[in-house]
Amino acid sequence: MEFWKLFFVALMPVLKVLLITALGTILAIDRFNILGQTARKNLNTIVYFVFVPALVYSSLAETITPRSVVRLWFMPVNILLTFVIGTVLGLLLVKLTRVPNHLHGLVLGCCSAGNLGNLPIIIVPAVCKQSGNPFGDVNVCTKNALAYASLSMALGSVYIWSYAYNLVRVYAPKVCNEAKIAENSMENPMSITKTDAENPSTCSTGLPFVSAVGDKSQSQDHDKNFEIHSTNSDHENTEETQKGEMMMEQVKTLVKRMNLKILFTPCTIGAILGLIIGIVPQFRKVLIGDKAPLHVVEDSVMMVGYACIPVMTLLVGANLIKGLNRLGKQFAVVVGIIVVKCIILPGIGVCIIKGAIRLRLIHPDPLYEFLLLLQFALPPAVALSTITQLFGAGESECSVIMFATYSCAAVSVTLWSTFYMWLVL
């Protein structure tokens, strides 16, 4: 297919996203205040707990089968590579631009975590719906695109709330009553305020997988174990027993302090349920298909899920409003992140995916290859705004980065999408 035809096929979905994003920004400005701060929090909560899980569940349940799970095994590896390579590039950027210490986690998070949910689930199905799309039949393409993008969204959610979350956490200057904040974020992820972060009485230095609240009883237990161990050092059996007890105590403490609940977001739970329904034949016969006894349940969930795409796009525009007035600050850092996300990382992605295809690690599906390539060219994840609010570190800088990167992504995603479609055909 000619380059210009591919360019216009790639341009139309991005223009649709831009128009809806611009509408969200307009609705959020003070003159209209339709998507004000309270409205955004409430709408974000509905998206987080209802729309996203419904869309992920319905898309995966309808299209994922045991055979397709085996064929899609490379996607989690590909997403991990985007995070690891982005982190390495972010470390280089931190050294070159001499970023302040309290912003190291934000820069690394923005370079590593791409928007693996919102944009793929908007752009990829929209490409399929364009007349003259290069991926074949519109209905089949759209169904597969939703399945691939939903899996990308679910995996991206797990990586962001485990990998990127702890990057920001490690470099945050203070972690403020972190166990409580993380628990509150699961109950209402968009209602986080900075009051806890500004209260020095509840803060301590942030360490990975370590609670911010000191536990004197646990430290006393460790002191007791150490004293017992030292007094019985002459007896080998007793010493081995004490070592085993100390190790078990440390493991129990680590498990208690690891906030595993934050990994099981509603999106992840929806993905797990969708995979179970799609893979287990008995469940699939009951719920999936026009002849299924409970197909009305699947249809209802799908109807709710389809509301996710326009609402998320409006919220992306509304959440960018904070960055409009601060674009002149941290110029070098913003430019560096744009270069990493819009130029360097997508180029590296081409080499990785072409190498995987040559090694036959990826099954020959142009749409699947296109999505894997697109995962390298996405702007930073919107969830980073929530993560920076959790720790009160770099909130204003995050809004600047989001505004600048998403503005540039309008051009870069279009150009890279055009090149990717040309490459996989």
TrEMBL record:
An example Gene Ontology CC term for this record: endoplasmic reticulum membrane
Family: Belongs to the auxin efflux carrier (TC 2.A.69.2) family.
Source organism phylogeny: Eukaryota, Viridiplantae, Streptophyta, Embryophyta, Tracheophyta
Species annotation: Vigna radiata var. radiata
Biased composition (Basic and acidic residues): 218-243
Top-level taxonomic group: Eukaryota
Membrane topology field: Multi-pass membrane protein
InterPro entries on file: Mem_transp_PIN-like, PILS1/3/4/5/7
BP GO annotations: auxin-activated signaling pathway; endoplasmic reticulum to cytosol auxin transport
Subcellular location, principal: endoplasmic reticulum
Coiled-coil segments: none
Pfam families xref list: Mem_trans (PF03547)
Membrane-spanning residues: 6-29, 41-60, 72-94, 106-125, 145-164, 262-283, 303-321, 333-357, 369-391, 403-423
Intracellular or extracellular location(s): Endoplasmic reticulum membrane
The protein, known as: Protein PIN-LIKES 3
Function: Involved in cellular auxin homeostasis by regulating auxin metabolism. Regulates intracellular auxin accumulation at the endoplasmic reticulum and thus auxin availability for nuclear auxin signaling.
Region: Disordered, residue numbers: 216-244
Keywords per UniProt: Auxin signaling pathway, Endoplasmic reticulum, Membrane, Transmembrane, Transmembrane helix, Transport
